[in-house]
Design brief:
By secondary structure, the chain is mainly beta. Helices cover 8% and strands 42% of the residues. It is built from 1 helix and 4 strands; from the N terminus they run H-E-E-E-E.
Length: 59
């Protein structure tokens, strides 16, 4: 939960990775889980797209 809340202060923290094929989507690791999110700088918004186990989150 703290990792998700931290995205509001820094939408591109160290360790985040940009997803290929998407202009504004990133992923961040939280243990065995991945948080996939979109960062919109003009609206200053972070939208959580999906949270799931690393094996299944990209399906």
């Amino acid at each position: 939960m703290a990792r998700i809340q931290a995205l509001s202060m820094d939408p591109r923290p160290p360790g985040c990775e940009k997803l290929s094929g998407h202009a504004d989507r990133y992923r961040v690791r939280q243990g065995d889980y991945r948080v996939v999110y979109a960062a919109n700088d003009t609206e200053r918004m972070v939208l959580i797209v999906k949270i799931g186990h690393r094996r299944e989150v990209y399906r």
